[in-house]
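User: Please predict the structure of the protein below. I'd like the answer in structure-token form so I can feed it into my own downstream comparison script.

Assistant: Understood. Taking the following sequence of 88 residues as input:
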Amino acid sequence: MSDALNYLLQARPEAMTAYFSFLKKSETHLDTRTRDLISVITKVAVQTEGGFRQYLTRALRNGASPNEVIDALLMAFPVLGLAKIVWA
């Protein structure tokens, strides 16, 4: 977990508990692999290397193929631009 997230957990535990509850409830209609692929793309969008590696590993472990990861990246290309796709 990031330092910022750890800080928020300590500073506002009630808000973070509500936030994590919201996240859990919002994950009911997508399968794990799809959620992981979306998370990979969001990490590319904000270029967080640690998060990118974490979710890429998780996506592959949960059944996404390398080609599905590439497809997800290519689907995001028009929005993210070449620099962020190359970064990934």
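That's the full token string. The first helix runs from residue 3 to 11.
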